[in-house]
Amino acid sequence: MCVSWPPLRCRWNSWFRPGSSAQTLFTGWMIRIVAPPLREHLEDLSELTEELIARLNRQLGLSVEGVTEEVIHMFQDYSWPGNIRELQTCWKRP
After folding, report:
1. SS3 letters across 5-73
2. Does the pTM of the predicted model rise above 0.85?
3. How confident is the model at residue 58 (pLDDT cuts 50, 70, 90)?
4. pLDDT at residue 26 tops 70
5. Confidence class of residue 28 from pLDDT cuts 50, 70 and 90?
6. Quick count: other Cβ atoms within 10 Å of Cβ 26?
7. How far is CA 38 from CA 5, 69, 73, 87, 88, in A?
8. Residues 64-92, buried b or exposed e (16+ Cβ, 10 A)?
9. Torsion-angle region of residue 89: left (phi > 0), alpha (psi -120 to 50) or beta?
């Protein structure tokens, strides 16, 4: 998890007293991470699916080997409003 507080565009001195422990803690540690929606990188669906299957196999003690091309094409046709977590949730549903 990444949190950006105060926003990166603000002036540090308006939020923290110079030399305070809060200023020392936050200075240099905040970055912004943007996770684009899955629909913006559909070409990665096959590799992401393989990784999720491997992870779920380890977590749940399963031995699923993969999915068919038909499933990958179905995934590529879906609009994917969310990010990788939506794909992961799709796999975890019964």
Report:
1. CCCCCCCHHHHCCCCCHHHHHHCCCCCCCCCCCHHHHHHHHHHHHHHHHHHHHHHHCCCCCCCCHHHHH
2. no
3. very high
4. no
5. low
6. 16
7. 26, 18, 14, 8, 11
8. eeeeeeeebeebeeeebeeebeebeeeee
9. alpha
